[in-house]
Description:
Distance between the termini: 55 Å
Radius of gyration: 24 Å
CATH topology of the largest domain: Rossmann fold
CATH superfamily of the largest domain: ANL, N-terminal domain
CATH class of the largest domain: Alpha Beta
Amino acid sequence: MQTKILPPTPGAYTYPLLIKNLLTTPLIYAPDQKIIYRDLKEFTYRQFGKRVCQLAHGLTKLGVKAGDTVAVMDWDSHRYLECYFAVPMLGAILHTVNIRLSSEQLLYTINHAEDDVLLINSEFLPMLAAIKDQLATVKKIVLLTDTDEVEAAGLDHEYEKMLQENPEEYDFPDFDENSIATTFYTTGTTGLPKGVYFSHRQLVLHTYGILSALCTFDRQARLSADDVYMPMTPMFHVHAWGMPYLMTLLCSKQVYPGRYDPKTLLDLVIKHKVTFSHCVPTILHMLLSHPAIAGCDLSGWKVIIGGSALSKGMCKQALAHGINVFTGYGMSETCPVLTIASLKADMHQWDQDRQIAIRCRTGLPISNVKLEIVDPNGQPVVHDGKATGEVVVRAPWLTQGYFKDEEKSKELWEGGWLHTGDIGYIDEEGYLQITDRLKDVIKTGGEWISSLALEDIISQHPGVSEVAVIGVRDAKWGERPMALVVPKASGTPVNVEDIRATILLEVEKGALPKYGMPEKILLVDQIAKTSVGKINKKQLRRDFT
């Protein structure tokens, strides 16, 4: 096919999609709207804009220039939000460092990303001390602290002092929208972390993609400028799912909670009337299990769950507390949002159980996301809610590869589609349902059992707090399912036979094959988690097989 491209008119301005343009709207429409850090700091958007400029001046004086990399190690804060804008607006690259990595992995990611400047919260100075002598490229280190009396701990620069010494205006340049804006590292539990990266163009398009998905359609939880936002996903992890960029564009009030503590999170929700958050299931579980939730009015709080599947049991428990909960889906490599579990207009009148089934679905693809399910030969399967295969995706905001890893980048993009490593199906209504990870599916007697389906069944027992299902080696069948169950501390008691009876009901209904009954069911005190709060099935397989 031959297309026609007209040359630009001489003197015409080609408008690049740059992060700096996301900040224009709130400074015009809502300059007096608030950005709050815990209850320690409070700024207006007008002040925030000035601080972004001061940070840009300060970084420039430290030698940061276009193409350099600035790393941040901090809890969720106003400072992090300022870095989300100031660093890429300079043409530099923001490296959001996973503060929960081991010392070895931390050192690897900082050196692999070739960080030039490191901004570090005082709480993480012991972590820095363990690796400082091995940092290969870091030239300057800036201290971040919440205290008024600053002990620089041998560092030459302190964040607030640096800002106050610099002008409140900065003429941010235009440059190619395909310039890298951010980088961070996937949280693999084996091997070295992999670096993913995103351009200004990708981040801006992702922002408008989730704007379209969350703010336009007649859905169960529509967002607007009236919402009060508080992230409960670390800002080092996939740009806190891109939501800080969206909520800044929307001119919404924002509350940054610092280090996560369930009582503090609930207190902030109540005090500031938070209406929108997002988190992984383990954070929601932590909140639902905390005694302080008993006295909280959480009606009107919209919460997106991602990172792992939302079980029907947890969904029902959250709804009972007034939390408008539903799922979103994506991964580190996808910026991340691909789908949102939106209820279609005719579903708003359904009973709760039918709605819960939709709220726990992986979701509908958001604007400009194309999903397919492919068989082992890479051929698409029918969208009938039954045929399963690997989920592959195309969208304008997917990472183009892994930083300095050509072989794994080619594997990721085999056949021109990004391969998620997830197994699932698409139903006649267009909803995606992930049934398992390729690496987590249980292969028994030549058949596949979904660990997620088993977890969903077990979670609905009223005495179950958490559950994880893994495959363990079996001489006869290859693998058999094993369930690890954390009972609730109070309320309905549960034992192994109760769990078996719950699963057997689904077997008798035909919802689960007989060989889906776990060989072993263990009651445990806790379940291993990854650095971003997901259930760590690799670790569980090492511990129990």
